Amino acid sequence: MSHLGLRILYEIVNRLPYAAAERVFAPWSDLREYMKANDVELASLETKRPVRTFDLVGFSLQHELSYTTILDMLSLSGIPFRTEDRIGSKNPFPIIIAGGPAAVNPAPMAPFIDAFLIGDGEEAIVEMLDAFRQAKADEAEGILKALSNIEGFYVPRIHGHSGRIKRRVVSDLDSAPFAERQIVPYASIIHDRVNIEIARGCAMGCRFCQAGMTYRPLRERSPETVLKLARNAVANTGYDDISFSSLSSGDYSCLLPLIREFNRSSKETRTAVSLPSLRVGSVSRDVLKEICSVRKTGFTMAPEAATERLRRVINKDFTDEDYERALNALFEEGWLTIKLYFMIGLPTEREEDITAINEMAMKALHIAKRNSGKFVNINITVSPFIPKSHTPFQWCGQISLEEMRRKLSYLRQSINSKKFKYKGHNEQMSFLEAVFARGDERLSGLIEEAWRSGCILDAWSEFFDFNKWLAAMEKTGIDGASYAERTFSADSPLPWDNIDVGVSRDFLFKEYSKALAETMTPNCRQACSGCGLECREAGEPGAHTCASAQSVDETNIAPAPQVPEPGAGKKLFKQRVRSCFSKTGMLRYLSHLELIAAMTKALKRAGVPVDYTKGFHPNPEVSFGPPLGVGVAGIEEYFDMEVFAPFDVQLYRTLLNSSLPDGIRISRMFVIPAAAPSLTVFVTRYEFIVTCPETEETDKSGPVYSGGPVIVLREGKETDISVCIESVERLALEDEEVRAFFISERQPAAAWRFVLKETEKIRVRLGEICTALLGKKMEELEIIRTGMYGWKDGWRKPL
């Protein structure tokens, strides 16, 4: 869900009147086992439609270790792996397409994928769907023929290894469609924020970086367009964090005025700006001041190599003085957490290049202590170098597994774990990445055999099993090291020669030769090095430049609604508002933290004028009542918020309900006294309706609880929880109240009303009580909390 490319394509397709895009992801191991045991097919999230009934199924090849998982998804969908088994079959199967960065070497997956899209997809996916519509009446062969005629599509069955497939390039990002109404997941995801792509491509020319070569030329979105997209996306999603991303965000020509203007217009929404990892040489004190004006996020720098000699080899343009200057700026501006990324195994690497990594880390620590005087989190991540296709280093092999282990082990021991958080990437994973990044079509047999051996979700360490891969290599007779470590000569044919990414082979080999000579190449903005692309001149569409803050044209940017800051002008009056809401349906499975996140995002989408806390990390002044257990529904739940007056409770209740997902609904909203006790202090009594599905063990007669001690084990001690049980009443299944609260379509065998209360020493734990009284775990029951009460001259609701 964090992948921006899929979000963009999802919105493009669903804007078309004749097409619908739905999502499907690989299931986690528990769901996968359940699906296989119960013959449940993989289906889409939106409509639960089986994947095999779709017209097209697309995969984004972000990582080489996803290849076996793709086969597993096809298997769970009932779709044959290989094109030859699908095309011409009596049973119609979807056309399988793939794109993404790993598609620039399609050879290892070519037998499994019907068509690869090489390059940018915004325009190509629409052409693909138009071609599919026109050819739909024909057999699958006709569809593949139509796709093969679209620029950027590689169809292995038709193209084979002949000809050159030219990469598809979107020339102008300003006119390219973008996902302004992104799906907001309930659960926290890896990059849980709005992500705006400010530029595509990179001018720096790092010789190890595949993306820096295959996404050329550099194209920037204008700051006016970025600001419009950012404001719309924040308003539509409710996120309080936005990332301005590109391969080298620090080198975006309008970065400072962009962040400055976004902060100015978004101050009242407390939306924090973050940037992905920056080049050391692009760290600017002015940019740092703007980033931390709302909230300090983590900061990441990628030195990659620790010596100036090795940085000349990889064309990483910064000096030791630049590194010290950047660190001084960071710590002087108050950052307390930074991440540093390094690589081992780079071409021409020497022992002093390895030891220098620890020296760079210690230098960061010393500068931090000198500038901040506080404890600073410095995270060091080290990854083995992986030679990738279409880069200057595509001709050289990876160092051996043994050498990777030795160097990572040395760093693990030399980098002081008490002073740094060290993380070394798994060398076996890096080895397999190199195998497939440099592989040919013969590796398809290894991929299939590894899947049959149980290799799935290999990018997750808890599933990765290198021994299974070794067994698959032995069974197929494929030596992985011969792929990862092999060195190509200048005129050797390469498995990816049929893919034309725009950067010429001659340029790449010249860069390889300059690397061995430890010679730098200037970045594309300083001088053209003749890489083979015809880049745009400044002033043309898609080639925006920005020299100063004044160059940001604000005339076409709709101003954000302004809510005055507290203390600005006259003193603002604040009110305390309490809301009563229900949490039912599928959303009863949200955790309390996920419920809070969903509600606070909805408040922001609805434009509710909530006040924020002060300090390092401002948060909305919102507090919830006692949490529900996961799977327990509630019909009278509460939360309080501090808002600015005037506040129309009916208007904002309507706006908030229009912004909330199905399953959460505000029933009442009212102003309460500022001095009223908090919900967690006031509420000490609860009512639940508990229903039990009919099973052979269900007790349908007799009292459940008639008084007396109820002994449970808490923290290793026997505890009598009977003081928490006020009453237990068996209910008639025909009771309208019971029928109104049935959660599922299953007919319950029995129902009860539990009335429970807190004491000063013993808190209510519903799971304990259900097990003690009913002999069942909470997940075996269906439970709704129907009321909460506090004592004030009698038991009262929090109204």
Question: How is this structure best described in words?
Answer:
31% of the residues lie in helices and 18% in strands. With 799 residues, it is of the alpha/beta class. The protein has 4 domains: 4-166, no CATH class; 173-186 and 194-442 and 478-516, tm_1862 like domain (pyruvate-formate lyase- activating enzyme); 574-676, Pseudouridine synthase I, catalytic domain, N-terminal subdomain (Alpha-Beta Plaits, 2-Layer Sandwich); 681-796. The two termini are 39 Å apart.
Number of helices: 25
Cα-atom radius of gyration: 30 Å
CATH class of the largest domain: Alpha Beta
Structural class, by secondary structure, is: alpha/beta
- The backbone outline, from C-alpha atoms, is globular
Q: Could you write a compact summary of the structure shown?
A:
With 799 residues, this protein is α/β, with parallel strands linked by helices.
Relevant terms:
31% helix; pyruvate-formate lyase- activating enzyme; globular; nine-stranded mixed β-sheet; 799 residues
Secondary structure: elements and pairs:
Layout: H1 4-15, H2 29-37, E1 56-60, H3 67-76, H4 83-86, E2 95-99, E3 115-117, H5 124-135, H6 140-148, E4 153-154, H7 156-159, E5 165-166, E6 194-197, E7 199-200, H8 210-214, E8 219-220, H9 223-237, E9 241-245, H10 255-265, E10 272-274, H11 285-291, E11 299-304, H12 308-314, H13 320-332, E12 337-344, H14 351-372, E13 377-384, H15 401-414, E14 421-424, H16 427-437, H17 443-452, H18 466-476, H19 480-484, E15 499-500, H20 505-516, E16 574-583, H21 592-605, E17 622-624, E18 633-644, H22 649-659, E19 664-672, H23 679-682, E20 683-693, E21 711-714, E22 717-720, E23 725-731, H24 736-740, E24 748-757, H25 766-774, E25 782-791, E26 795-796
Parallel strand pairs: 1-2, 2-3, 5-15, 6-9, 9-10, 11-12, 12-13, 13-14, 18-25
Antiparallel strand pairs: 3-4, 7-8, 16-18, 16-19, 17-18, 20-24, 20-25, 21-22, 23-24, 25-26
Helix pairs in contact: 3-17, 5-6, 9-10, 9-21, 10-11, 13-14, 17-18
